[in-house]
Amino acid sequence: MKVYLDNNATTIVDPAVFSEMEPYFVQRYGNPNSLHLFASETHPAIKDGMEKIYAGIHAPREDSVIITSCATESNNWVLKSIYFEYILTGKKNHIMVSEVEHPSVIATAKFIESMGAKVTYLPINHEGIIDPQTVRDNITENTALVSIMWANNETGAIFPIAEIGDICEEHNVLFHTDAVQAIGKTPVDVQAINVDYLTFSAHKFHGPKGVGALYVKKGKELIPLLHGGAQMGGYRSGTLNVPGIVGMGKAMEQAIDALEFEMTEVREMRDAFEDELLKIEDTFVVTPREKRTPNTILISFRGIEGESMLWDLNRAGIGASTGSACASEDLEANSVMEAIGAAEDLAHTAIRFSLSRYTTQEELDYTLETVKEAVKRLRGISSSYAYAPEGHKSGLDSHHH
Question: Which of 88, 278, 326, 343 is catalytic?
Fold first, then answer.
């Protein structure tokens, strides 16, 4: 049996999305910027795709949604644009990000820090969530931007974006949120919260890889990183990815339609699966489930290296991860585990299971049996598990089940 439980890394392209994209590869292939009929064949599709994207995040017409290659590009763009607009010119010198942002935000923050920006990396609390008060405590008149993710890719923790947005507005500071893990899992409405920039990526909600977007509120600065043929209103040059726009639009529409299902059915399956996992002795989950996206579990098995568990799961045909897909090549401790101050022997033991609307009960039952067998085998050969002092075994008491 093959079971895919790594949907926070990427998702299957919804067949309806694929069939909508298909004509724009071979049949209607004109460059939308050309002046002949081949180009005009693509215009209605682009318009339709864009309308679905605007509708999906409740963006008003006067705001901009700019198509990019991915959320990594969008995240880089916002931070670098702020650098050029504010820090390089000496208007302001400070930005804030959470310490558990996606690598595309953290690495960019470190880069602009090396170029002279002051960066505050805000800590998360023991539940793996940013406390809005931390933002308030660190904001100054020199702060140009606050960038905090909507939902965490590793734990699924949903951050208090509305409160953080209000604090930024109060202090006249620009606010960016990386909403990659939020679309299709929790309602995203750019009019209901104060947000200036918002990024997302189609492949996280059953769209194609290689296409993402950046939402920009009307009147907010954005310096182009890609100059050239003035596509996308001059903000981002480059020939438009027509099938990508069509696919992202359709995937967005499907994700909004399936949101209710995700928040009820998928959540129920996740909760039941998690209950069974937590019956295994010495396991714990970081963020309380009501504060998480409905599809995500980050669970630690004391005495078991995450990589060893992945090996056993992989042999059984199950795809899971130890946290961020972007970091799974290097055997580092899970960043969230380190950030909440998990004991050293727990920081390497986290496994992330992320479900989708395609996940079945049968797949979860099979996974549960495989996990139980793996725990038995791996703890049987674990030196750290057998000799853990009794008092130490419960780890983070507040999360011990």
Answer: 326
